[in-house]
Amino acid sequence: DVKVTQSSRYLVKRTGEKVFLECVQDMDHENMFWYRQDPGLGLRLIYFSYDVKMKEKGDIPEGYSVSREKKERFSLILESASTNQTSMYLCASSLSSGRVGNEQYFGPGTRLTVT
Amino acid sequence: GDSVTQMEGPVTLSEEAFLTINCTYTATGYPSLFWYVQYPGEGLQLLLKATKADDKGSNKGFEATYRKETTSFHLEKGSVQVSDSAVYFCALSDLWSNTGKLIFGQGTTLQVKP
Questions:
Q1: pLDDT tens-digit profile of B90-107?
Q2: Using CA atoms in the order A51, A56, A59, A60, what is the torsion angle rounded to 10 degrees?
Q3: Residue A100 above 90 pLDDT?
Q4: How many beta-carbon pairs below 8 A join chains A and B?
Q5: Is A33 in Cβ contact with B101 (below 8 Å)?
Q6: DSSP helix/strand/coil, B81
């Protein structure tokens, strides 16, 4: 089975701190994604990566950056955390694009609170 | 652009009731369609999928049929259980996209009462 793990289930940080959220997948997937999930807003794509060192902005990249130095690991970075970044963060991975039925596999999520 | 519209929730049912959660989509190309489920405090899990018109996806008693003529992918289950209480997301991907992105609906909360 595909396994996507996230470094923390719950995280509490202070405003202005630099925050790292880590995601690791064990199935050699090319694509990796970071979403945030907020009540009433569904899932919103922050960034995604289709190869090592490659990244593209999603729908809400402002205030975030990402890093993908190894194929299995995709990090989300909040350079200076703010209270409006309090949210559930979900990581996902999938096989390379262009495949029929190319589903994404999700990690358990990190609930981040910024105070 | 491509989009997915789900019925608003919450949907509240009694145990053993019939479930339908509506999902319609707008897309260019030939998307694959998915239903994901999110149990409280967890990430999303793939429930079922369909990759071409008239395909029926099924899993754990849930079914959905890819209807190209009505651009729909409604989720159904004949007899729900309390353990089916969760948030359900409909999603689509574009076979011809080179990004692997999925477009999600807003999610529908299902509450099943004993």
A1: 999 865 556 778 899 999
A2: 100
A3: no
A4: 66
A5: yes
A6: coil
Does B42 touch chain A if contact means CB atoms closer than 8 Å?
yes
Residues of chain A positioned with their CB less than 8 A from the CB of B105: 42
Six-digit token string for A97? 């694009």
Cα–Cα distances (Å) from B28 to A4, A13, B49, B57, in that order, read 30, 42, 18, 21
> What percent of chain B is predicted at pLDDT more than 90?
75
Compute the nearest-CA separation of B103 from chain A (Å). Answer: 9
Report the DSSP pairing between strands A10-13 and A110-114: parallel
Residues in contact with B1: Cβ distance below 8 Å, sequence separation at least 6, in sequence order: none
Contact (Cβ atoms closer than 8 angstroms) between residue B84 and residue B75: no
- For residue A101, which residues of chain B lie inside 8 Å, CB to CB? 32, 49, 51
Using an 8 Å CB-CB cutoff, list chain B residues near A42: 89, 104-107
* Digit-coded pLDDT (tens) for A40-59: 888 999 999 988 989 999 99
Statement: residue A2 has pLDDT above 70 = no
